[in-house]
Amino acid sequence: MIRALFDAGADLFRLNFSHGAHAEHANRFQVIRGIEAEVGRPIGILLDLQGPKLRLGRFKAGPVMLARGAPYRLDLDPGPGDSDRAPLPHAEIFAALERGSELLIDDGRVRLRVEDFGADFAETRVVVGGEVRDHKGVNVPGVMLPLSALTVKDRRDLEYGLSLGADWVAQSFVQRPEDVAELRDLVDGRASIMVKLEKPSALDHLEPIVELTDAVMVARGDLGVELPPERVPTAQKRIVQACRQAGKPVVVATHMLDSMIHAPVPTRAEASDVASAVYEGVDSVMLSAETAAGEYPLESVRMMDRIISQVESDPHYRTIIDANHPTPDSTRADAICSALRQVASIRPTAAIVTYTSSGFTAQRAARERPEAPILSLTPEMRTARRLALVWGVHAVLIDPPTADTDVPHVISEACRIAVREGFAHHDEALAIAAGIPFGTAGTTNLLHLARIVDESAVTGDAL
Fold first, then answer.
1. Which member of 41, 85, 111, 196 is catalytic?
2. Tens digit of pLDDT for each residue in 361-399?
3. Superfamily per CATH, domain 332-462
4. Can you point out the beta strands (E) in 298-426?
5. Tens of pLDDT, residues 77-101
6. Measured between alpha carbons, how far is 285 from 389 in angstroms, rounded to an integer?
7. Catalytic one among 14, 220, 244, 385?
8. Is 6 helix (H, G, I), strand (E, B) or coil?
9. Considering the domain 2-51+148-320, what is its CATH architecture?
């Protein structure tokens, strides 16, 4: 099934460490790497950390029904709960409360308002009634909780996932830039970091968080628990625009094709939701329960792929993308990549080719959202795998450059690979970006326009 999902259009697979044992994740990891070897294409793997989970304790006699307007107590007493009180074993919550604060239970299905509180208790009033039961989740909207985004379990999972070779690490429960810095110190360059924006408090520090991370996930499910539903779309657009401006990949996730968990086709609203994200210029859209536990995983990926293709073939897509084009930074890389975009819009260009070691040039080229696809050539397999997430990028592993590598060789190789990968044919043009000396990160300084005469002979000029 994983092979079928890849063939249907999946570029990156998420291993959700909120569920499953290490051995299960290791098995799936090896399956994905085996498929990668079979197909000869880099496949990204995302290690998704669970983060802190704030939950009620146990109840004495099963679920209880809370009526609107009734008083209800939450406290640190570990004794089983009943219709009058429940254990909430998280002192951090009580330390952050104020009168009038709201507590959301079970993704907001039950809502409590705080009337009095202390270091170990909260007296509340039921605002929205409903059933509560063992270990249901608790959210505290609008409150910065004094706890780390990384639990002891997260640290164990992180080290295990990095030992396997995960390409990306997704961080849950981010509230402030310091949370990202803490994870970056632990990862120490062994993977790229993706922040999951699921706490409204993180939106108050959006730009600093985007600056510190390598990519962002708009985790709309959790974000929509603490944020009113009508504010989630505008929050999504704000996050996407911040990432577009910074040139950081952005993923939209949760409930994208939710009805396909049990149905072979999505609702029209879901199809429109996916399309809207693509029109916004996001790098990736993500399926969750649809492929993790749904009855139609393959159909879900195929549907997602078809929606993306349909949007990108719409003439209005280019108009919308160009209207939201970010301003290039005053750097050599952005000067070159901005010129690549202009070249692709002025003259017919089969593909843009970037030579990159770290992936930076490919990402800056993708930030421009050019009309031509981006063929990224890299000697680093881990870079090729990480680029699987990035808009418009088709990464190919190449041999490392040597002291004898010169411009004619680089241009010839770009043309040969573009033909081999099906991006270009005889007499078509390529726009090629690279750095001289070759193999040195951060030296993007060459723009070459080439025309394919055959698989190796080219004509053109370096700019």
1. 196
2. 999 999 999 999 999 999 999 999 999 999 999 999 999
3. Pyruvate kinase, C-terminal domain (3.40.1380.20)
4. 351-355, 374-378, 393-397
5. 999 999 999 999 999 999 999 999 9
6. 10
7. 14
8. helix
9. Alpha-Beta Barrel (3.20)
Catalytic-labelled residue, pool 53, 55, 155, 451: 55
Q: Tokens 């492929």 correspond to what residue?
A: 291
Catalytic residue check, 254? yes
Listed in sequence order, the residues at least 6 apart from 88 whose beta carbon sits closer than 8 Å to its beta carbon are: 54, 56, 57, 74, 75, 76, 94, 122, 138
**Whole-number Å distance between alpha carbons of 51 and 172:** 5
pLDDT in tens, 250-292: 999 999 999 999 999 999 999 999 999 999 999 999 999 999 9
Q: Which of 124, 213, 254, 349 is catalytic?
A: 254
Contact 259, 266 (CB under 8 A): yes
Residue 14 annotated to the active site? yes
Q: What is the CATH number of domain 64-139?
A: 2.40.33.10
- C-alpha to C-alpha distance for 436 and 364, rounded to whole angstroms: 17
Specify whether 248 is catalytic: no
- The phi, psi pair for 427, rounded to 5°, reads 75, 10
Nearest-5° Cα angle at 135, 220 to 255: 20
Domain residue ranges in the chain? 2-51+148-320, 64-139, 332-462
279-306 mean pLDDT:
97
